[in-house]
């Protein structure tokens, strides 16, 4: 096995928010091109720190969000805007569930 060309795998279930990924790290972890990450930033799915792509840093949650959008696009056959909207709605549902649990309710 040639380890020189192997791609690092980010298969950890949960990456903490203080984990910092570069644009290249995120591309490798998700097996996509930088242009696709830039599109995700443009539509507001990802919010990197830094002013330009060469200096962008993404928190660990960005890996999860990117993979989730890609899965929505693949599984549902929807475009990026639709996947971004679906992700926003899923985030809202999770937020509401968290609030409900905090109040002692069930869903």
Q: How does this structure look, described?
A:
The chain has 107 residues and is mainly alpha-helical. The protein has one domain: Multidrug-efflux Transporter Regulator, Chain: A, Domain 2 (Orthogonal Bundle). It is 53% helix and 4% strand. The protein contains 4 helices and 2 strands; from the N terminus they run βααβαα. It has helices at residues 23-30, 34-42, 60-76, 80-102; strands at 21-22, 57-58. It has a two-stranded antiparallel ribbon with strand order 1-2. Helix 3 (60-76) packs across helix 4. The longest helix is centred in the C-terminal third of the chain and has 23 residues, at 80-102. Residues 1-8 have low confidence and may be disordered.
Strands ordered across the widest β-sheet:
1-2
- C-alpha termini separation: 49 Å
* Computed structural class: mainly alpha
Low-pLDDT parts are: 1-8
Order of helices and strands: EHHEHH
Strand content: under 5%
Number of domains: 1
Mean pLDDT: 86
Helix content: 40-55%
> How many strands?
2
Rg is 16 Å
User: What is the CATH-assigned architecture?
Assistant: Orthogonal Bundle
How many individual helices? Answer: 4
Would you state the CATH class? Mainly Alpha
Which term fits the overall shape? globular
Keywords:
107 residues; mainly alpha; Multidrug-efflux Transporter Regulator, Chain: A, Domain 2; 2 strands; globular; disordered N terminus
